[in-house]
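So, could you explain this one?
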Amino acid sequence: MTVIVSCGEPAGIGPEVAAKAWDLLRRPMLWIGDPRHLPPGTPVAEVSGPEEAAEVARRALPVLARDFGPPVSPGRPNPAHAQGVIDAISEGVDLVRAGRASALCTAPISKAALVSGAGFGYPGHTEFLAHLGGDVDVVMMLACEGLRVVPATIHVALADVPRLLTADRLERVLRITWDSLRHDWGLPEPRIAVAGLNPHAGEDGLMGTEEATLIGPVLDRLRAEGMTLAGPLPADTMFHEEARAGYDAAVCMYHDQALIPIKTLDFARGVNVTAGLPFVRTSPDHGTAFGIAGQGRADPRSMIAALDLADRLAGQRGTPWRQ
């Protein structure tokens, strides 16, 4: 089936990487947005729905055309486009949930532009999609060849992590990650490595106690249910090649602890997956890149990887596993 691609921020590189990815793949995908925002010369076929995408995808980019009003100025987000960007995401979710498309792949958004232009009330894509999915619990998983990582806390100040890292939060993150590895990734007995919060995983309490008082007890409780969990482990020894061979995903305690390893390992092909949704959603693991927008320099490899993974996960899942 067809993968929906929401346009993302029109003044960023989203339209360019979508057009480049289509040109290299030439397979069913449906871009939702204003076709005037695509790179000049992009072959476009305006369609009325995902069902028509397969017929035209070999010769042109299938587009569900929406009028965003003012023209785009690359690198300069226009608040007037904000509602159109939000609506493209919502419409994409509706099409996937209705069974008319297999998955949603979202291009990068500018949260500041959405807030200033439309009063966007969510920290980012992940939280908005959780709302559209029925206010479900979700986690952000980053994936590339050879590594999957999940941060237990995401876009928060490092000083706030110890307060936000509760036993309930960590347990929910681990359960969602476990379910996703089984149902989305086809791993019947997932192995999850869990990082400590502090250097050396606390060094027996010399560098912090959260490993003994919070993380360890959660892991013991879930191990008693049959989950295969290693940790809490020192984060600085979790990501070399030999260590990565011993687990299927790593759950980390904060944003950079998870994202630095994956971006170091494969910066150009990382994919953001929202685990826990009642539909498949992927996204390239990069931002709007306003500094190179409109210059034809954007690298489409992460978008291609996101489209490939959307196809793979949708095929593995078959039908939604979380209602």
Remarks:
- The first strand starts at residue 3 and ends at 6.
- Confidence is low (pLDDT under 50) at residues 319-323.
- Residues 167-183 form the longest helix (17 residues).
